[in-house]
Amino acid sequence: MTRHFLALHDYTKDELDALLALAADLKYKQKAGVPHKLLDGKSVALIFEKASTRTRVSFEVGVFQLGGHGLFMPSANSQMGRGEPIKDSARVMSRYCDGIMIRTFGQEIVDEFAKYSDVPVINGLTDLFHPCQIMADLQTVIEHKRTYDGLTFAWVGDGNNMANTWIEAAAICGFKLRLACPAGYEPDSNVMAWAQAKAPGLITVTSDPKVAVAGVDVINTDVWASMGQESEQKEREKAFAGYCLDDALLALAKPDCIVLHCLPAHRGEEISDSVIEGKNSVVWDEAENRLHIQKAIMATLIK
Ligand code: CP
Ligand code: NVA
Description:
By secondary structure, this protein is α/β, with parallel strands linked by helices. It has helices spanning 13-32, 54-65, 86-96, 107-116, 131-145, 161-173, 189-198, 209-213, 233-239, 247-250, 273-276, 283-301, and strands at residues 43-48, 69-74, 99-103, 121-123, 152-156, 176-180, 203-206, 218-221, 258-261.
């Protein structure tokens, strides 16, 4: 059966840990110049219905480093952008390619694509989830803290695709997560219900960022208006007043707390320049790890 990577809830803790271990090994090999051409001669299509810097470059370079070939496909330049049905595109593309990554809007689009694809489909971000990013974030946490076990994580900001994926990660991996989101911008209720059933009491939601970050080991934030929500920017700036991760808020966490941001960042909105550039920030390691974890995901799924 073809295995996809659409959402973390399809994976066990052991499977996620195995991906993280392989990512660390591939990172070591890449830096040491040890060949690791696990996708020799394979082709992976990279479909983008939204903008990207990190996802595009890390997937394309990652496939190349594994000995394969990445095809950058902005959907606006393909027949998908002109309305060719997802199920037709999936069946055709999976006859040419050995794997397919998609960045799009609704989660149902990647689900539909995967349903009709004979080759692994990887979610490169939807409105609901960003699983590759949270895996890179976990790799970064392990590098800086040795393990995620026993740590407390905070999320400050929008209950968006990143927040929803952190909720799934916390429930699967078993770490504590406190989210601070303004009223009306809470995480997806179905994701929360699933997580609360799987791991009762591990995940809490408050509207007070100070409560969320008090004494935590890891703080993560993200833009207030995600891709596709640009027209809401002004009203979101009002709703998120007081949610900037600045020095005063960071001071409430543990002194060695690490700060994550998936990037791109809006300095002066969700994060201050001093925090993203400061000693607690690990955002550049985090961005780099997109490369290594996605190589691990592709090498594991694509046969
Ligand atoms: N973090 C992330 O997914 O970045 P891009 O939008 O640049 O791909
Ligand atoms: N929440 C952001 C993440 C960007 C990588 C968005 O969806 O635009």
